[in-house]
Design brief:
By secondary structure, the protein is of the alpha/beta class. About 45% of the residues lie in helices and about 15% in strands.
Length: about 350
């Protein structure tokens, strides 16, 4: 590779990350063993954090892309990707930390495993002060990743690396703005092979200003519509993304409280006969009379769609716990074989 072209580009989009931005960038610039550049996309920050961080870290490997308006996180990534020159492109959020050796480990794995398209790693959560909060839910086995994909994000997108052409081929979309990571994951799984390294190489910061904290209702709406689009694709149907986006934007204007939103999505999935997804949303709707009635209806729909075993597994355990039990023999209850599907592995939801 040409010496002027870095091996790895790290793409960071930021908007008012405050004091978290400088340590995030430093954790990247301190990475050893890999030739890198950091492409920092300033999503129209107004808190002075970008100028302060760039002034404190005078490093030619740090390249700044300024946007005149806040295009949200997905828009920032879309704007920054053409500026990434490396053969590998890694993601990172502006308030997180990459642990030493992260980029080298991921680049080495991708270099020696050409069949892998997107590579994650295990993530540790921390609070605003950097104190550990425990591990983030992550799946590492490709089979588990595929099985869990219809329901939620299998590992953290902000801790991933892929070849640059894969990012450009799959890309991000603005249709479901607050769940662009899950929308990307579903399409990435259709386009290639996803793997997660069983090593903690990244720290995810949980704090009051994070999108997941103060936009939980909007994120729920975006994730629901992203699941619906992916479910349609799995059946070979057209997404009808224009209509979905219009409905999504209308729901975003006045998001429902969490239990009501889950009930609404459970009914939405029932109307299109996506039984297992209806079960999942009905479970999350809580134990109100309406939620219980929806759960019963969704279970019957799922039984006709996928058979009684996957429906019961989803209703009794949920997708994440079912995968943990399935993967850990010590956790399997007596009679676990009752929960094993007799269908082929390609159609065995968990």
């Amino acid at each position: 590779m040409d010496a002027a072209v870095p091996e790895v580009s790290v793409l960071v989009a930021t908007h008012n990350a405050g004091a978290f931005l400088r340590p995030a960038l430093a954790s990247l610039l301190d990475q050893a063993g890999v030739d890198l550049e950091v492409v920092l996309v300033d999503n129209a920050s107004t808190d002075g954090s970008v100028d302060a961080a760039v002034a404190a870290l005078p490093d030619p490997r740090l390249r700044l892309v300024r946007l005149s308006e806040n295009r949200l996180h997905a828009g920032g990534l879309i704007a920054g990707l053409p500026h990434c020159r490396g053969g590998y492109v890694a993601m990172m959020d502006a308030d997180d930390l990459s642990l030493p050796g992260r980029l080298t480990a991921q680049a080495d794995f991708l270099r020696t495993h050409p069949e892998v398209d997107l590579l994650g790693c295990l993530v540790e959560r921390m609070d605003a002060a950097g104190r550990p909060l425990g591990a983030m839910f992550s799946l590492t086995r490709p089979g588990d990743i595929r099985a869990y994909m219809p329901y939620d994000v299998p590992f953290a997108l902000n801790a991933t690396m892929a070849r640059a052409d894969f990012w450009r081929r799959v890309g991000w979309r603005l249709h479901f703005c607050w769940a662009h990571d899950y929308d990307f994951f579903t399409r990435a799984a259709e386009a290639g092979t996803l793997v997660c390294l069983p090593q903690v190489l990244y720290r995810y910061r949980v704090h009051a200003a994070a999108v997941s904290q103060h936009r939980a209702g909007q994120l729920l709406v975006s994730a629901g519509f992203a699941r619906l689009a992916a479910a349609r694709r799995r059946r070979g149907q057209a997404e009808d993304v224009a209509a979905l986006r219009e409905e999504h934007d209308q729901r975003q204007e006045n998001p429902l409280p969490e239990p009501a939103a889950y009930r609404w999505f459970a009914r939405r999935f029932l109307r299109e006969d996506h039984g297992l997804l209806a079960v999942m949303h009905a479970r999350r709707a809580g134990l109100s009379a309406a939620g219980c009635w929806l759960l019963v209806r969704a279970c019957f729909c799922a039984m006709f769609e996928s058979g009684p075993v996957p429906a019961l597994r989803m209703a009794l355990l949920g997708p994440a716990h079912a995968l943990r039990v399935q993967s850990t023999p010590a956790l399997r209850p007596r009679g676990w074989n009752l929960f094993r599907s007799q269908r082929g592995p390609e159609s065995r939801p968990t």
